[in-house]
Amino acid sequence: MKRFFLLAIALLLPLSIFAALPLGKVPPVVMLQGDDGGRVDGSPWSSEEISGKVFIMFYVDPDEKNLNDHVSLRLKEESFSPNHFASIAVINMDATWLPNSMIASSLKEKQKEFPLTTYVKDMEKVLVDKWDLGDDTSNVVAFDRKGQVIFSKDGKLSASEVDTLISSIKAKL
Length: 173
Hints:
This protein is an alpha/beta fold. It has helices at residues 2-17, 69-78, 100-113, 126-131, 159-172; strands spanning 31-32, 37-39, 45-46, 54-60, 85-92, 117-122, 138-143, 149-154.
């Protein structure tokens, strides 16, 4: 019986590690401010801002920041209009051993380099807890103009998953 219980846990564990947001749903509202985080300039950020355009959000452990670079490159190649498409990079600050000051400095530089992307710090894994996003990985989530999830994947996207993401975005623009 004990072996059965351990086997059941082993089979279910990967499901929780690679959980993704359900398609067609607007996730619960999340506010990152104060000790929980916020924009790189210190102002609050709310998930209610994800509306009116098609959004792509990368929720990333700094130790895994390059895991989905191929997705970013593909999105850049598509040259979606900033009138209809926006991007958010949320950094899971609690998922790394790197000093927060070092990451914050890097994020300020990124914000200057890519002013059309909203950079946000999640200091306490709020999105891991509230949205069940994968921890210690790279998450890619796309939203339609109403804030409904149209694509969600934790971990490295395959070439076919990137194609699916791009198709999902184009269908909602």
